[in-house]
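Onboarding guide, step 5: your first structure request.
Type a short instruction followed by the sequence, for example:

Predict the 3D structure of this protein.
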Amino acid sequence: MAKKVLGFAQLATLIVVLSPSSIYANVGPGDNAAEFTTLCQLISLAEGAAQPPAATTAPSAEYDELMRLNMTLSDEAWHDMFIKSKADKTWHDAIPATAKDPGGWAEAWPTWRKAAEELTQEDKMANIKSLNVNAANPKQKAMIITEIRKMADAAQELMKKRHTLDKSIEKPPQEYAAALKTLAYGDKTKNRKTVTAADAFKGGSTSFSTDCGGAAASNKIKTVAATITCLCHKANTQNEDQVCGRTVKITTNTWTVNGAIGSAGVITEPLGFCSVEQGTDLTSSEITAILRQLKSLIKVTSNDGILGASDNGSCDADKTHGICIKLTNWAADGKVDITKLEWAKQAVELAKELSRREHAAASAAEIDSAIRNLHRQAFRTTLYTAHIQHNPHQTATPLDSTSKNDKGMEDKKKECEKHKNNKTSCTNAKCIWEGKDGKSDTEGECKPKDGGKGTAQTNAGTGDGTAGTGPNCASQTKKEDCEKENVGKTTPVCGWRIGKDNEPDKDKEMCRNGSFLVNKQFALSVVSAAFVALLF
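The system replies with structure tokens like these:
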């Protein structure tokens, strides 16, 4: 079979048919779908009355109760400063002339005055009375007062910061939903079924070229609804009824584009394809994202901007040219200014306000949590301080005890010195007689039993029988009397012997404490036992 060769004319015709300009000559179905889908997000939020989450409620009850608790721990003079007349039960609303303000009182006065007045209201004192601070011991109460004052002061500082945030979060959430309705439909009372051309376009509708074109600085597109109408309408001639999507087919309403919109259905029919977002929080980030996406869809030609599909750079509602919005000087130096659309400018401001609210609400929530935590801790201070013991009898320190012993020994020394010329009277006074040359009964020294050192020993002798609780060996001047001290005892307590190196008068034979060696041996046995325990 012979091959058929195309002629020049046939080949040229085929090239024309297959060229991009011939394939994409007309605006087709779905060419404005991306723009419509983006704009529909705002309609969906408006229809669902989206609004920001409500800010947390300030913990006024907890704060006021903490202030009352702090006030109850103040003295009576402080309470009385706020009372204008006890008889009339009136209070000073400002610092009285009789009070001297050291600084900072004026700002805190309303809080203090309120707390002072509420102390007289029984229904507000139940929790405070149940705390029963007065049952605490003095040390506990001092600690409780200190800690609660610190907590009250911290709470006041936090509440001051909280009040600075109020302006950013006091606007009711539903007002943000109303603002969204306004930028969507031009009237907060309208919706996608009731919006009209007079609502959607600035000054109402005139014609397609006027409504959807012109200078960026003076365009008539003041709502989201108007923007969708310009992109998705069905013109009376050369129309594309599915330009905003194959499922977004305009079948009922037609716009005679050389004149004004004759039926509200031209606007409402395409809006009906947008879904309704119920229970969605309105956030700054969402609005910003929608605007950013829409801005990215605007094409730049010279200094002009085009939103929608255009085949030849014009926008006249004719599918062979362009179904779009073209604004002159919308993109000076290639930079698109989306806020030239009135509704977009409102959306930018709405996003900024929402952002401020979101940050303030987050800070307020943290502060509210901190104040509630301070309140909770304040009402647990009696538990936190329960371990603090108070012993009113434990007033003397070891140093005090030593001082008392020293004074007692000084008095004893003076008493003994009165008997320095008589051995008998010296020993009768329970003092130690040291005769001259160790023999005289009329010349010598009469001393306290511990040698006047001012220290008391217990459970261990010193070798001379002067231990405060040991046997009175040193008072025995005769050997036989010394040995009598051992009668009835399993271990000798006294002995007539020469002194050891660490005993007084070590070269003198006298009655000495015999328990010295025993106690030292006992101590040694304890150390030895401990050492053996370490080995095993």
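Each response can be followed by summary notes, for example: The first strand starts at residue 83 and ends at 85.
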